[in-house]
Amino acid sequence: MKLEFEKYHGAGNDFVMIDDRDLNFPAGNEVLIRRICDRRFGVGADGLILLQKHPSFDFKMVYFNADGKAGSMCGNGGRCVAAFAKSLGIIDHVTYFMASDGAHEAIFTPSQISLKMQDVTEVEKIGTNYYLNTGSPHYVCLVEDVEKFDVLKEGRKIRYNKRFAKLGTNVNFVEITKTGLKVRTYERGVEDETLSCGTGVTAAALVACIKGIKRNAKQFVVLTKGGKLKVSFTSLANNSFSNIWLHGPAAFVYKGFYYF
Predict the structure, then answer these.
(1) Tens digits of pLDDT across the chain (260 residues)
(2) Residue of 37, 141, 197, 209 marked active site
(3) Computed over its alpha carbons, how large is the radius of gyration of the chain?
(4) Pairing outcome for strands 227-235 and 60-65
(5) From its phi and psi, is residue 102 left (phi > 0), alpha (psi between -120 and 50) or beta?
(6) Quick check: 72 and 100 in contact, CB under 8 A?
(7) Is residue 74 among the annotated active site residues?
(8) In sequence order, what are the residues at sequence separation of 6 or more whose Cβ sits closer than 8 angstroms to the Cβ of residue 87?
(9) Is 141 an active-site residue?
(10) Helices 198-210 and 75-87 sit at what angle, rounded to 10 degrees?
(11) Which of 37, 74, 80, 141 is catalytic?
(12) Which DSSP string corresponds to 12-49?
């Protein structure tokens, strides 16, 4: 069978995009999805995204991690699937689409795509670290000199500890800089560090606000290994946040066919 796809990336976080409006893709085939995402034997990606029809929204985003399993919300993937939908002629400069965590709005400008995230109403403090859900679960640790930090080793320790081993969590290591934040993320489902993580940098920015870094800040510039993102938000009482937006690039890489 021949499968047509396009590949996109958001700040180095890359995805295989498939137009599945006819529901022909075997979404339950974890082995196939894992093979497509494999960087040596397949296309190579951090995840696979199906664009499907939705009766009330412009489209539906269905996300799979590189391990072949259905994933939770992906912020960079959300911006990339919006770009994919635009290339298909489904939308213009604004879109409303459905994802696993609910409805999202995306707005296009000449230089970036802004994605509205779900409100955050609960943040748990664990020792000196934080745990919250920004569409996906994220554990956030503030560290010094994040570029030299062993993200793989320390990320695995937390992701596979007694509390998180069954369902997993993404783990973010955050350094405070003069201009904003530097973030590196260990992603569950990929089980490795990715070049950036949209829901992860969102979680990092909210935690930075809670910690009082740049007090009264309403946005943070976040530098990842794959590029620069920005998170804006409205801070509410009791560590709650609304009007959360993830801003950044979403780039087409190439299109092709995968045979299986």
Answers:
(1) 899 999 999 999 999 999 999 999 999 999 999 999 999 999 999 999 999 999 999 999 999 999 999 999 999 999 999 999 999 999 999 999 999 999 999 999 999 999 999 999 999 999 999 999 999 999 999 999 999 999 999 999 999 999 999 999 999 999 999 889 999 999 999 999 999 999 999 999 999 999 988 766 799 999 999 999 999 999 999 999 999 999 999 999 999 999 98
(2) 197
(3) 17
(4) unpaired
(5) left
(6) yes
(7) yes
(8) 6, 252
(9) no
(10) 130
(11) 74
(12) TEEEEEEE-TT--S-TT-HHHHHHHH-TTTSS--SEEE
H helices of the chain, in order, are 30-37, 75-87, 151-159, 198-210
**Collapsed DSSP state (helix, strand, coil) of residue 203:** helix
Residue 226 corresponds to which amino acid? G
**What are the structure tokens assigned to 189, written together?**
């489902």
∠49-50-55 over CA atoms, to 5°? 135
Catalogue all structural domains in the chain, each as residue range(s) with its CATH number: 2-111+250-259 (3.10.310.10), 123-248 (3.10.310.10)
